[in-house]
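Checklist before submission:
- one chain only
- standard amino acids only
- sequence pasted in full

Submission:
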Amino acid sequence: MLESIHIENFAIIDSLQLEFDSGMSALTGETGAGKSILLDAIKLAAGDRAETDSIRSGAQRAEISVCFGLRDLDAANRWLLENEMAADGECVIRRVLHTNGRSKAFINGYNATLAQLRTLCDMLIDIHGQHEHQSLQKSQVQRQLLDAFLADPALIAQVAQKYRGYRDLQRRLQQARSGSQEREQRIDLLGLYCNELRQLNLAEGEYESLQNEYRRLANAGNLIEKTGEILRLLYEGEEQNLQSSLSLCEQQLAELVASDPALSDSHEMVNAALIQVQEATAELRAYRDGIELDGERLASTNERIADAQNLARKHHVEVSFLPALALELEQELELLQGDDFDVAALESELDKAREDYLFSARELSLKRQQTAASLSEQITQVMQQLGMENGRFVIDIDSTQEPSANGIDNIRYLVTTNPGQTPRTLAKTASGGELSRISLAIQVIMSESSRIPTLIFDEVDAGVGGGVAEIVGKKLRLLGHGRQVLCVTHLPQVASQAHHHYRVEKSSVDDATTTAVSILDEAERLEEIARMLGGVKITEQSRAHASEMIASRD
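Returned file contents:
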């Protein structure tokens, strides 16, 4: 359940802290007061993309935090645990927007991606917009709604997976049938490439070692000369060297320490320096004595480096990538020479894959048809309750379509609004107002079957009024008995049915506009319903009417 929201510098909201309760909550206010801004903030927290113009004018950043209670929400708790974002019984989502276009998201204080926000919020909140009836005419949306009501994601995913395997076999068979000549040419070319790379046989990391060895061999004379000079300075110089000087200093300091212990630190440091010089001398001597002036090795190393560079240029890759390229080309050659291009074997495998796909697709189609019959009846009942007495809703499924990742069904939503009429597509039958009510009927039915704890309805009652509006309100209140329902509405018939009532107000001070939201007590609520009924001037008659509407709640 959505427990609270905190907003800073978002649109015309300066600062807003709001807490929510269970049941149905209505959000009302004058047109342009900012009701939709509150929902936009929730959508951003749920993973919508941000726009820099959403930040309040004059501010450098906007911040939105929402808190959800997670009691009895096993799926959300499990997701948070798997993603190492779990908290004790709650989920705090925070979104920060900056004027430079950057945004950050956090879940329980942990950095999160927008994809993670969407995945999590799909388990917590379901938003129904006032314009959903426009997308309702799209076949893809119609199928998605039916499949959501079907509630068998495993079967739907299985059909898609089997289709991908079937299509992959189709492509392989087509390649095997049409590309035999090209394949042989490719095999010949790959054989040449692989032989060259096998002969080179460059190991992982070998090229860097070759370069280091070449530099050492090419500069062997200079390395011997310079290390010899350094050794003379450190130890081997007859007249004076660093080691003998440090040794003399160490001996004299050892004598002085006996007179004044304050010199003990200096003595220790000089002694340590002497030891370091002795160790460096030993290492340098071993290094110098190990250097060889090997012209043959220098030439062979140079030749191997050149061979590697030539092959790298031929294949347009870095030299360090040659070992990986050799493996990649060997695998491709093995694939082209293997059984994957046996036409007869591929045809048999394709037939089996098609039958396997069709078995699952027909199972999905049968379940869709069974679900469609039940869903059509339920939506028809709600349509008739919403003032379309003679309306009838039909989900038509044609199961003879070509295979696809979504199955073999062509799903169409049909409707008739007059008795005796044959159901036709929504675009050809329903008016704008009727589409709104059909959309609302579908949303109510889908919400009743959903397990999502928080439902938000954004002016889905647009286009209705009178007794139908009261029925809409009662439907939303009924949903609120089992779950949390937030409803942005301009209809008093709907607002009067809510368990809780919030008023959104816009004000201007010193040329700055801001939006505030307050929860209404019973007296304030009566005045707000009366305002919605009577307009600017509230009369005793409108107050009496508002009181009757509030009293009519179940």
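Reviewer check: The first helix runs from residue 35 to 45.
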